[in-house]
Specification:
- The complex is a heterodimer of chains A (465) and B (128).
- Chain A folds into three domains: 75 residues, no CATH class; 292 residues, 2-Layer Sandwich (Gyrase A, domain 2); 83 residues, Elongation Factor Tu (Ef-tu), domain 3 (Beta Barrel).
- Chain A contains seven helices and 25 strands.
- By secondary structure, chain A is an alpha+beta fold.
- Chain B has a single domain, classed as RNA polymerase II/Efflux pump adaptor protein, barrel-sandwich hybrid domain (OB fold (Dihydrolipoamide Acetyltransferase, E2P), Beta Barrel), CATH 2.40.50.
- Helix content of chain B is 20%, strand content 34%.
- In chain B, the strands form two sheets. In chain B, strands 1-2-3-9-8-5 form a six-stranded antiparallel sheet. In chain B, strands 4-6-7 form a three-stranded antiparallel sheet.
- The chains are: A alpha+beta (465), B alpha+beta (128).
- The interface between A and B is medium-sized, with 29 and 21 residues.
């Protein structure tokens, strides 16, 4: 419900009494009891709370009959939700603004400050700023960095000029998506990969293992600099009215523009700010015009505050992950973990455009080339509810319509679309149901509601640039 | 601070009850609507449905979450608020008035005395 589950498993002996501390999520959930643990048959001995630290301590005794099989050592395994969350350098800024915080991919992040709908509409009509410091940054440099990355990522890096960014995917040998990411080319042999928060460790592991197999591995340096970096996204049609004032001087690297608004879509520039260097990219995840700024962690709060000040007269609002999710769903940008995972391919997800088959071999190529030539059996489609209904949500079943209705898939992303005022979503269905105008049904709490497959994006922002 | 009217009774799970004789009106509190924000859909119990106190009997959906509503009292549903189904934002704008959920004929009026009073409910929500 609004946050992703992360589980950790611990082994306890029968009748053991354990004290478990959780960061509470009471700020979001008005029923504080449902998010704590998925283990069954625990007897609550006592509970204490430290509201200042947002910590709930529960002392529980392990009842005799628990979930899971008895392991050979005579103890039981319990699965708890893992709520020991990481915080971004902007955590205290969010607290000051009264944000509601949730767990997302292992991070304690703002889901909203005032209202998801208000924040969503601010981005569509004016401007919004998002903390995206949880996202990861991996630096890849050296004379063979391009060759290595071109063999590891699906898009064609040879087309990426210095001072530009490219959306791309990293796949396994089966063509399954390990992550979707942005590759910045900061210098001739200097790349920065912007990866999903929940995938930092898996991505870095994968990159290391691929590098170990690369014949010129000594000519590539791989560094996970995620902890040293913060990032914000500044999105919306009014952003161009104030973004140049964040640092009113010419770029020092990347695309050598006089000011950020001269950047074209997917171009990046290095600018000076408060004695630090930061990268500003004309990219985003909302469908609106906007910029993403990647900066050293120690200056990101100054960047955040500066943008808040500059943007306020133009209607800029701080926006949480709730609005980020509704905005990207309306424009059908996939979310890793929902719409993409290691068992789905970019071709099935409708991302063929970012898979370059006219380059040398890369991981996953054989499967992706076959799918591109011979077609896929399932496809990620966008749909819109046909009438007023409860919002579709991830994992709701998708059914075909008509007398021989059958379960054909599952919603991967779903929400009320604030720009449209109706339920919208994404989900995988067999090819024969993937055509726009196909009538389908979404099962919402046991009842099926009519929906229709629509072309992507579901909502088209009125872009001026 | 959230509005907690003095003339209502409250459930720990953030529903309010307005009792008049053996009829009660049920809705969710200002605190609850504030925590939920942006209510976009409300599903109410069927007319004449018999509910036991604690039964999950309605659903409120915001942009981000779906939340069950539990009946604070037992009885038979005598009326549901169609206006709130047509315009779920009433839950946010008028949680104690136009945003009510359903009316119920109490089968066990003594249950009401075990609900929280306004001061107790205030104490509960100020701790969160």
């Amino acid at each position: 419900m609004g946050f992703e589950e992360q589980s950790f498993v611990e082994t306890f002996k029968k009748s053991e009494v354990v004290r478990i501390e959780f960061l509470t999520l009471k700020t979001l959930n008005y029923r504080s009891d449902f998010c704590i643990m998925s283990a069954h048959r625990l007897t609550l001995e006592s509970e204490s709370e430290n509201p200042k630290l947002n910590v709930l301590a529960r002392t529980v005794s392990i009842a005799g009959d628990l979930c899971g099989p008895l392991d050979p050592r005579g103890s039981k395994r319990l699965v708890f939700r893992h709520l020991k969350m990481k915080r971004t350098p902007l955590y205290s800024a969010h607290q000051k603004l009264g944000a509601k915080l949730i767990e997302f991919g292992g991070w304690e992040m703002p889901v909203q400050y005032t209202s998801i709908t208000d924040e969503h509409l601010a981005v569509r009509k004016a401007a919004g700023i998002f903390d995206i410091s949880h996202m990861g940054e991996v630096s890849v440099s050296g004379p063979r960095a391009e060759a290595f990355l071109n063999r590891t990522l699906t898009n064609d890096l040879r087309k990426l000029e210095v001072g530009a960014a490219q959306y791309t995917l990293m796949c396994n040998e089966r063509g399954g998506v390990i992550d979707d990411l942005y590759a910045y080319r900061n210098g001739a042999s200097d790349y920065l990969l912007i990866v999903n928060a929940s995938r930092i460790e898996s991505d870095f592991c994968w990159l290391q293992s691929r590098l170990a197999m690369f014949e010129h591995r000594d000519d590539v340096v791989l560094r996970n600099i995620s902890d040293a970096m913060g990032a914000v996204a500044v999105q919306g049609p009014r952003v161009v009215d104030f973004i140049d004032n964040v640092s009113p001087q010419p770029a020092k690297g990347g695309t050598l523009v006089a000011r950020p608004t001269q950047l074209k879509k997917n171009q990046i520039a290095k600018i000076q700010f408060a004695g630090a260097e930061l990268w500003i990219a004309r990219t985003g995840y909302t469908g609106e015009d906007g910029f993403e700024i990647v900066a050293p962690a120690q200056v990101i709060e100054a960047v955040w505050n500066k943008v808040l000040d500059l943007g306020k007269p133009f209607g800029l609002k701080p926006c949480g992950l709730g609005a980020r999710d509704t905005l990207r769903t309306e424009v059908c940008y996939p979310l890793y973990g929902n719409d993409l995972d290691e068992n789905t391919t970019p071709i099935e997800a409708g991302l063929s455009f970012f898979v370059a088959l006219n380059k040398d071999d890369f991981v996953g190529r054989a499967v992706l080339a076959d799918q591109k030539a011979n077609g896929v059996t399932k496809k990620l489609v966008a749909f819109k509810m046909s009438e007023k209904s409860a919002p579709p949500r991830p994992h709701y079943p998708i059914w075909s319509a008509g007398p021989k209705a059958a379960r054909i898939g599952e919603v991967t992303s779903g929400t009320q679309g604030p720009s449209l005022g109706i339920g919208i979503g994404l989900g995988y269905v067999p090819l024969e149901f993937a055509k726009p105008q196909t009538v389908i049904e979404i099962e919402i709490r046991g009842k099926r509601a009519p929906a229709v497959v629509v072309p992507k994006p579901i909502y088209s922002p009125q872009l001026i640039v | 601070m959230s509005n907690v009217p003095a003339d209502l009774k409250y459930a720990k799970s953030h529903e309010w009850v307005r009792v008049a004789g053996d009829l009660a009106t049920v809705g969710i509190t200002d605190h609850a609507q504030h925590e939920l924000t942006d209510v976009v859909f409300v599903e109410l119990p069927e007319l004449h449905k018999k509910l036991k106190a604690g039964d999950a009997c309605a659903v409120v959906e915001s942009v981000k979450t779906a939340s069950d509503i539990y009946s604070p009292v037992s009885g038979e549903v005598t009326e549901v608020n169609k206006a709130v189904v047509d315009n779920p934002a009433l839950v946010n704008t008028a949680p104690y008035e136009a945003g009510w959920f359903y009316k119920i004929k109490l089968s066990n009026p003594s249950e009401v005395s075990s609900l929280l009073g306004p001061e107790q409910y205030k104490a509960q929500i100020s701790g969160s």
